[in-house]
Design goal:
- The structure is a homotrimer.
- By secondary structure, chain A is of the alpha/beta class.
- In chain A, 45% of the residues lie in helices and 19% in strands.
- Chain A is built from 6 helices and 6 strands.
- In chain A, the strands form 2 sheets. Chain A has a 4-stranded parallel sheet, with helices on both faces.
- In chain A, helix 3 runs parallel beside helix 5.
- The interface between A and B is medium-sized, with 28 and 24 residues.
């Protein structure tokens, strides 16, 4: 977890690199404009060339089930983008179903899974029902997820603060 | 303290439950629209039925003085909503007076008092004098309050980080 | 580091006061309106009268080089304002050059240097390319700076949480 430009993606990538295992990178971002495209490409350039990248904006639980293995590391970047993609479908049943699927799949996964997600609730919230819903769904997901995983870190200025468990280095 | 949907209310309720004492819940929220109403009702449903709920949007210090007792737990949810209600009165003298009353009452209170409040200053601040005033007043209150209480926790993804004192569990 | 009205300036001033050395205060704020003027004056009134104040909205690296000395404390308040001033010049080459200059100067400085900066990425980001650029540049600067300094603290409600190194008191 961390703010925008807190270095959370880079920190997660460093953890993944240190695992000395095959890394599968699940990118949830949907490229919608030129600025975004540049941002995504910069991210790709930052990652080791031998990592396998999968783009999965919606069916994250399924993708995790298909790729998780005891000798692999999966890095999901990022959950808030995934929640955003789900909200853009304007289908509350799908939204709830996908989030529930993720929460049910997680305890069954073997191997290391690293989730990157944005802390989005510590500022003044702009008006708008969709924004509020985004903060609600993201926050609820973070709370539920934090219960079922071993480590939660808050990234500030590229450095990790321990929220749950120990930081790896 | 925590962001929107960080699980801070739930965490505070868990602390209150663990105290094994009568719990008085002071709700500062003013119900202004349907969405808010649903939100408040969801919160009420989450709380144990034997808790006593008091709605007090403005005269918080007075309410605390009237209800605090050495064998009771008071949970105030939340301070930022209270600051917001005060600002909505558009009466700076009232605002200052109520905040000062709260700060003076706190050291005299017996029993356990738990305050829930939002961290609102860690994002880009939208334009507008009222927003800035809200952030200023909330922030100042947090700083002053933190001096006179024993424990300050920052809630992230439903988990507590210690800012002052130890977390209860 | 800290949110708006988190007490980060005051905390930094307390650290500086405890050093028992001459303090040079570098203010990066450009006074643009009456509200800002009042805010800056309130800040000045809060500081000890014998501190030397330098106003430097742009050439921060140069100012640090000129004033740093092994028997002095320099307090820079704040970096996010400085990044904002640079962005307002609408000159990307200047922006990059000044940030690089700062990063190169820091390891060479003798004496104590304290930077105050805003965490701005933990809320919903308002639309707009300039806002995004501001968050990007601030965040990148925080990450790079955090690598080359000894202590990073996150200020919440006027209290310090350790991100890197130990808090001074």
């Amino acid at each position: 977890m961390g703010g925008a430009r807190s270095g959370k993606s880079r920190y997660a990538e460093t953890i993944a690199s240190h695992c000395d295992q095959e890394v599968i990178y699940i990118a949830t971002a949907k490229v919608l404009d030129k600025e975004m495209e540049a941002r995504v490409e910069r991210h790709i350039d930052d990652r080791p060339a031998h990592w396998k990248t999968i783009e999965e904006p919606i069916a994250l639980a399924e993708s995790l089930e298909n790729h998780a293995a005891s000798n692999k590391v999966i890095l999901v970047d990022c959950l808030t983008m995934w929640v955003n993609n789900l909200l853009m479908q304007e289908d509350d049943i799908l939204l709830t179903a996908e989030i529930n699927k993720l929460l049910q799949v997680i305890p069954k996964l073997t191997g290391t899974v690293i989730f990157v997600s944005n802390e989005v609730g510590m500022g003044i919230m702009p008006l708008g029902e969709l924004t509020r819903k985004f903060v609600d769904e993201s926050g609820r997901l973070h709370q539920q997820l934090a219960q079922s995983i071993d480590n939660v870190l808050l990234i500030v200025a590229g450095l990790a603060m321990e929220v749950k468990g120990k930081k790896p280095f």
